[in-house]
Design brief:
This protein has 107 residues and is an alpha+beta fold. Helices cover 23% and strands 36% of the residues. It has helices at 60-63, 67-72, 87-101, and strands at 6-10, 16-23, 33-42, 45-54, 77-82. It has a 5-stranded antiparallel sheet with strand order 1-2-5-3-4, covered by helices on one side.
């Protein structure tokens, strides 16, 4: 279940993307979207560990090969941004965020 919070992640372009915050392990519907595994370092202060995109968020935990390493790095939450069925737009959003934040598991 979503927490009552949205975190705005800003990309290198200056564009802001609003992501819902969930605890890791949350199940999702069959929807395309972008996501961020993140660690909360103090209340409402996040460090991104990995940004990604998928055509189906419901399969995210079934086949994401980096989840064990991401959790060992301290990820406690997953942030999601849904509503964009266009893969190129999702890839552009992911690239914009990675260019700004340089998360360890995207490099």
């Amino acid at each position: 279940m979503a927490e009552d919070r949205i975190v705005p992640w800003d990309g290198k372009s200056g564009k802001k993307y609003n992501y819902w915050i969930y605890e890791i392990g949350q199940s999702f519907e069959h929807v395309p979207g972008n996501y961020c595994f993140a660690k909360e370092v103090k209340p409402h202060k996040w460090i991104p560990i990995y940004f990604g995109e998928t055509s189906d968020l419901s399969e995210l935990f079934d086949n994401h090969y980096r989840i064990p390493a991401i959790q060992r790095k301290g990820a406690t939450h997953i942030h999601t941004h849904t509503g964009n069925a266009n893969r190129e737009a999702r890839l552009a959003e992911e690239a914009d965020l990675v260019e700004k934040w340089h998360p360890e598991y995207n490099d």
